[in-house]
Specification:
The chain has 16 helices and 23 strands. The chain is an alpha+beta fold. The structure holds ligand 86X.
Length: about 500
């Protein structure tokens, strides 16, 4: 047993922290040394480290979000936060530590998760009388307050969100952003007087998640309802947005749950309605996390490293002056022009790379690796012609632009890049979905790393059997459904009920 454990740790370390290899590499090898299509996971690991997004730490699964990554999160946070505030939702903060008795109060939804809960057991050398869970999610601690705050219909709706970290001690090997033991997220927890109001919010939030992915990350999503098996056990239903990554794996991007009155009953959250009758509240919860950053990296990155959609890029434009050591007078003029340009572009996030210890070629690679959408080169010839050269990160296309048109042109190009990234990802998603009418089709599609779309009987047994055989889970059931005719694709001989997406997933 002990030997086995030791062995596993060694393997994990090799996968996650190629410390020595990458440190040596760093000196000689600035760029990514593998192709994305040849070895996706190595490509991903190199990209996030070399672009300075992530640092590993002594605790497996707990990674540093370096400023470049945190900046992306802040941008997304800022957008989402403003949108939910428009909807009438407020932010609050609930404690990190949850007493065992409270966490166990609602066992129904926690059951399967117990092994993932991390506990605080001591202060100094003294054992706590009751151990404290580090929140894996905050239902229990929040609803314990909600029960005290909600008395009458006048206290409703109660709509709170919190931005925080959570800890889930996953045993599958950690992957930066995509599967970490600590991650950042928002969790919204709301209570209403009626099911109807709650249902509207579930849909509104699902659509907002879709906007975060599609408009900010430029990552297209499949919106739909989770199957009974895949929904959150504590929910009446769960809506989700799902994305698809180039390694052939689908991944859930955000979930919005109609909790119904399940938690209200467990936590005794009631209100007196207008007639003075006691009623249970209708609740929702919803969340999305820093995992979304990993999805974006996986979807847009290329063999040169990160490719960032302008809407979330911490730097929009990198200005690289091209100078020659034997022409100091010209250099001075180039630098002056570069500084002037930086100032004119101040409505954008601009970096002027005037480090003189590095060559222009090194700087091109440096900013490409970091996914900066536009590079502006200014060399002696450009100086003469009153122009600059603008290079797009997504297509690599270069263009000479008159100096007085650079601002307008840059803004236009950033919009084009955002659209282009989304359109390419959308094409990839669409061509990755294949309709299936038989189990034979299904096996082929899943084996080839694609998404199977089939008319399905909607029953748990078939879902479990299909997963067992092929490793594919249901992603979700889209709201707009083609006509459903005939029998389930899985060969169970039952009538098909719903068109559903299946894929291997994270
Ligand atoms: C499910 C449900 C829900 C609020 C969301 O999906 C959005 C934001 N929460 C989260 N879930 C757990 O309830 C859970 C519970 C424990 Cl104790 C755990 F260790 C892990 C968990 N993972 C997910």
């Amino acid at each position: 047993m002990i030997a086995k454990k030791t062995k596993k740790t060694v393997v994990e370390l090799r996968i996650e922290r190629p410390v020595k290899a990458s440190n040596n590499e760093k000196k000689s090898e600035l760029g990514i040394t593998v192709k994305k299509t040849d070895n996706f996971s190595e490509w991903y690991t190199q990209t996030i480290q070399k672009a300075e997004l992530i640092e590993y730490t002594p605790v497996s699964g707990c990674m540093v979000l370096r400023p470049y990554a945190y900046s992306i999160w802040e941008t997304v946070q800022d957008f989402f936060d403003k949108e939910i505030k428009k909807m009438g939702i407020k932010n609050a903060y609930f404690p990190l530590l949850i007493p065992e008795s409270l966490l166990k109060k609602e066992q129904e939804h926690v059951k399967g998760f117990n092994p993932e809960v991390a506990w605080v057991t001591h202060h100094g050398n003294t054992k706590f009388e009751e151990k404290l869970a580090i929140r894996p999610t905050s239902e229990t601690i929040m609803y314990d307050s909600y029960k005290k705050w909600i008395r009458s219909y006048r206290d409703l709706p109660l709509r709170l969100n919190q931005w925080c970290n959570v800890v889930r001690w996953e045993f599958k090997h950690p992957v930066p952003f995509l599967r970490t033991r600590e991650f950042l997220w928002q969790e919204g927890h709301t209570a209403f007087a009626s099911r109807k109001e709650a249902e509207k919010e579930v849909a509104d939030i699902r659509e907002l998640y879709a906007r975060v992915f599609e408009e900010l990350y430029a990552v297209p999503v499949l919106k739909g309802r989770k199957s009974e098996t895949e929904k959150f056990a504590g929910a009446v239903y769960t809506d989700s947005v799902e994305s698809f990554m180039p390694n052939g794996k689908a991944i859930q991007g955000g979930t919005s749950h109609l909790l119904g009155q399940n938690f209200a009953k467990a936590f005794d959250i009631t209100f007196l309605d207008k007639n003075g009758d006691k009623q249970y509240v209708w609740q929702n919860s919803w969340g999305f996390s820093t995992r979304s950053i990993g999805v974006m990296i996986a979807v847009h990155g290329d063999d040169k490293g990160l490719v960032l959609p302008p809407r979330v890029a911490p730097v929009h434009v990198a200005i690289v002056p091209i100078m020659f050591s034997n022409k100091p007078a010209v250099n001075e003029k180039i630098l002056k022009m570069a500084k002037k340009l930086k100032n004119e572009l101040k409505s954008l996030k601009v970096e002027l790379d005037d480090r003189d210890e590095y060559s222009p070629g090194f700087k091109f690679n440096y900013w490409e690796l970091r996914g900066v959408p536009l590079r502006i080169e200014i060399g002696p010839k450009d100086l003469e012609k009153d122009q600059v050269v603008i290079v797009r990160r997504d297509t690599g296309v270069k263009e000479a632009v008159p100096i007085n048109e650079v601002v307008v042109k840059s803004i236009k190009l950033l919009g084009d890049i955002q659209d282009n990234l989304f359109n390419n990802a959308k094409k990839f998603l669409q061509t990755s979905i294949e309709k299936v009418t038989s189990m034979n089709d299904f096996r082929k599609v899943i084996k080839s790393g694609k998404i199977a779309y089939g008319a399905w009987c909607n029953c748990k047994e078939c879902e479990a059997q299909v997963k067992d055989e092929t490793g594919a889970k249901t992603l979700n059931i889209p709201f707009e459904q083609p006509k459903v005719i005939g029998k389930c694709f899985c060969g169970c001989d039952k009538k098909a009920e719903k068109w559903v997406y299946f894929a291997r997933s994270y």
